[in-house]
Design brief:
alpha/beta; 4-stranded antiparallel beta sheet; 14 strands; disordered N terminus; binds pyridoxal-5'-phosphate
Length: 466
């Protein structure tokens, strides 16, 4: 195939397929036609901010610090080719077939190997293989949440969870975080308030390790208290842990699932960040009564997770080098994290604060409250650089002066250049504000004190994880 040729075009001699019928834009009349048919829930469905951004950042000249992607160029193409060839030669018919809804036993073995690395040992019967961790969030919400039910998550929370909670019409409450993760004391106050109103939250959703988007890790002490609260109150915790294995330094606190034992903690995992997001393979661990309902929910949504992807993971694990592959990723991401922190120090004005993650993929930066990062993104895009505006991680319009910065999917040079460009755009705004008002403003500095202004009660994070 010559360069520039469409790889999907039909080969010579075959009749060309009919030209697709394209619509330029959805007109008001088009919308009217369906308006009475849409389900009520579609009125509260939100677009995923990251999905929208992916279109804008796909231009090759844009340095995107917006995605949550891992660097899939690190996976050797020759290994991928050999693994897929073996599948084709030895298990073609099976790999192309439907599989059981709960996933293959071999996939569950791989999952158990991964979870054992963080000290967990779930019963295979307690595991369901899902189409990515995203489906696991969707299934758990579908299983527990009726319209109006309270759900609690962190402030900020994983931006991809926000559209899920909205789609099921949850009444979502967000509990502030600081450098040691979710403020469990504030969670307790919220639980007391809800109880006084006769309301019981369906679950608390948390990403306790190297959180997306904040990059912070919940301390061991808070984890223990959270687990105690779960037991005392019979409160369900949904622990989403895509990043626990991506630790750059130090020892990690124990997962909630391990601390609690799995009665009140539903655990979500994924191969996306340690192998490939393209294979769309995740999992959920829950006690049998919960898993039964989740399995029914999954049957309705996609019957089973991709058999081919499950065969690929089994091949990859059979080769035995998966731990070394994660070690390589950790080394690469650590250097990129360092490049980002160094560039932030050099190029962001002193009026900004940011987290210093010990793992994962993200740094969370907070600017003075007169800067709106959604507006700032438009300016940054003109400089061919992108980030995720903080508002995407809130259900209620907070986070407007914060941003999520990804360091896993760009090279060290790109990260340095991207941060330099964002820093310049921020500095222009800061200088303008200070010249006009004569005022010097920083995000509220003391831990535990709410930041003022449009940030609402978003707590600025200390620069270092405790
Ligand atoms: C906290 C968290 N949960 C879930 C997901 C979804 O991942 P996937 O569906 O690729 O497994 C992500 C992806 O970025 C994430 O950061």
């Amino acid at each position: 195939m010559t360069e520039g040729q469409d790889p999907h075009a039909s080969s010579q001699g075959e009749p060309a397929p009919p030209a697709p019928h394209r619509r330029a834009h959805t007109s008001a009349r088009d919308l009217d036609r369906y308006a009475d048919l849409f389900a009520q829930r579609t009125t509260v469905m939100r677009s995923s901010a990251m999905r929208d951004l992916m279109e804008l950042t796909a231009r090759p000249e844009v340095i995107s610090l917006a995605g949550g992607q891992t660097d899939t160029t690190t996976f050797p193409p020759e290994s991928f080719a050999a693994q897929m060839t073996r599948i084709a030669q030895e298990s073609s018919a099976e790999a192309l077939q439907y599989g059981p809804t709960e996933g293959f036993a071999r996939t569950k073995d791989c999952i158990r190997e991964v979870m054992a690395m963080e000290g967990m040992g779930p019963d295979p019967e307690d595991i369901i293989v899902t189409t990515g961790g995203q489906q696991a969030i969707d299934l758990v919400t579908k299983t527990f949440v009726d319209p109006g039910d309270p759900v609690i998550c962190e402030a900020p929370t994983y931006p991809g969870a926000v559209p899920v909670f909205s789609a099921y019409q949850a009444d979502t409450f967000q509990v502030e975080m600081d450098g040691a993760g979710m403020r469990v004391d504030r969670l307790e106050s919220l639980l007391a308030e809800l109880e006084a109103e006769g309301r019981r939250p369906k679950f608390v959703y948390t990403v306790p390790s190297f959180q997306n988007p904040a990059g912070v890790t919940m301390s061991a002490e808070r984890r223990r208290r959270l687990v105690e609260i779960a037991r005392e109150r019979e409160l369900l915790i949904v622990e989403d842990n895509p990043y626990g294995m991506l630790r750059f330094e130090g020892e990690g606190p124990e997962p909630l699932y391990k601390l609690e034992g799995g009665d009140y903690v539903v655990y979500l995992g994924t191969f996306s960040k340690i192998l490939s997001p393209g294979i769309r393979l995740g999992w959920l661990c829950a006690p049998p009564p919960v898993l039964e309902k989740v399995t029914l929910g999954k049957q309705a949504s996609d019957l089973c997770t991709s058999t081919l992807s499950q065969y690929f993971v089994a091949e990859f694990f059979d080769e035995g080098g998966w731990r070394e592959y994660i070690d390589d990723l950790v080394g690469i991401y650590r250097r990129r994290r360092d490049a980002m922190l160094d560039a932030l120090d050099r190029h962001f004005p002193r009026q900004a604060t940011w987290t210093e993650p010990q793992g994962g993929l993200f740094v969370w930066a907070t600017l003075p409250d007169y800067i709106n990062t959604t507006d700032l993104l438009a300016k940054a895009l003109r400089q061919n650089v992108a980030f995720v505006p903080g508002a995407a991680a809130f259900v209620d319009g907070r986070g407007t002066s914060s941003m999520r910065l990804n360091f896993s999917s760009s090279t060290e040079d790109e990260i340095r250049e991207g941060i330099r460009r964002i820093g310049r755009v921020i500095s222009e705004q800061v200088e303008l504000f200070e010249t006009i008002t004569g005022e010097y403003r920083v995000p509220a500095a003391s831990e535990g004190e709410p930041a003022s202004g449009s940030g609402g009660d978003v707590l600025p994070f200390r620069r270092t994880d405790p």
